[in-house]
Design brief:
The protein is α+β, with helices and mostly antiparallel strands. The chain has 5 helices and 8 strands; from the N terminus they run αβββαβαββααββ.
Length: 191
Amino acid sequence: STLLSIPYPSTNTPPDKLLRQLGWSLILFRSILHYRFYFDKGLPVRGSIAFGPAVVEDDVFAGQCILHAYEDAQKLELAAVVLHPTAEKEFNELFGDDRDLSRSYNVPFRNSDSEQRLVLLPTVEKKDYSPWLPFDIRGYVAEAFLKHNKALSPQDRVKLDNTEMCLRFFKLTCPHLFEDAALGQTTSPPS
């Protein structure tokens, strides 16, 4: 497991809004890059971002927000990074309706339930990587799940299907984020 955190000063007065927005932007971009790195390496990860007080002492971390994020990520039935309701509240307060980093999506959970949650958009381009979301989305997702000669269990197939559907939803609902900025075109199959 990986823990990424936004440290706020331990005072009764929270930092001003601009500083909080900066901290959140950094953790959101870092989370997207982290997700993307592991996905491209064939390790599709599940993650959750929660918000709240925590104690950090050297390499010991404790707090309800850490438990929320961990439990949320363990229940996800897709490879994605979601915002826990505690983080969603803070995110909405800071960014309002700006949805260039996330989209509301009906997220499937392990117990067959689903819940509308904000999901981070994995569209930040990284140098030296092939374009994100090539023509064959299903093949791209399957390659990530199968990259290390891993046999897919029935549960893994469910996650693969759910991940594919989530990425298709993103591509349909925010095509401008999936365009080649230089060409002004959406990603097309290789020639």
